[in-house]
Design a protein that fits this description.
Blueprint lengths: L9 E4 L3 E5 L2 E5 L8 E5 L6 E9 L4 E8 L20 E6 L27 E8 L2 E6 L2 E6 L8 E6 L8 E10 L3
Antiparallel strand pairs: 1-4, 2-3, 3-12, 4-11, 5-8, 5-12, 6-7, 6-11, 8-9, 9-10
Length: 180
């Protein structure tokens, strides 16, 4: 299933600025609306393969959320997406933090290697099957973890709470498919 890049299959939360532009979903940081912003699918997924392209501008970070249950989100504490005892998982997109590089499962397991780069299009594949998650970037396996909670949840993207004023993250060719 190709996920609509026209914004119709998505819902936003928080101050991040999200737009649909020429088949891409684009997130921007704005100093006039500081704080993290999120964009989530309206549909929930449990076992799936997510494949897409992403591009992040220099000096920023973003995240891809998987199995994030629909709940009352906040921008603080355990009610933030990816935090708390029932939260989903955030796969980091970050080329600045060498301790938690792109492909890291936030607060769970670091990426084994750095793949891809800022300022260019990068291919990412995330497969969630049962308690396992596998992440590859630019065709390189960068992370595998086998202790996820098996729960349905939305897929989402993040605009960080602080970033350079011209920060953008772009996603395109978003495909979610079933895995056996």
């Amino acid at each position: 299933m190709l996920v609509d890049a026209d914004y119709s299959g998505w819902q936003s939360y928080g101050p991040g600025l999200w737009t649909a532009e020429g088949g891409e979903i684009v997130g921007r940081f704005s100093k006039s609306r500081p704080g993290p912003g999120y964009l989530f699918t309206r549909e929930e997924f449990t076992d799936f393969r997510l494949a897409m392209m992403f591009q992040i501008s220099n000096g920023g970070r973003s995240g891809i959320y998987v199995r994030e249950p629909r709940r009352k989100w906040s921008n603080e504490g355990d009610d933030r997406p990816g935090f708390g005892p029932v939260a989903g998982y955030e796969v980091l997109i970050d080329y600045q933090d060498r301790e938690n590089p792109t492909g890291t499962i936030n607060n769970i397991q670091k990426s084994r290697k750095l793949a891809g780069a800022e300022g260019k299009w990068n291919e990412i594949e995330i497969v969630c099957r049962g308690s396992e998650i596998r992440i590859s970037i630019a065709g390189q396996n960068v992370n595998r973890f086998n202790q996820l909670r098996v729960q349905p949840g939305v897929i989402g993207f993040e605009v960080p709470g602080t970033a350079p004023e011209d920060f953008m993250v772009r996603f395109r060719d978003i495909v979610v498919s079933s895995v056996a």
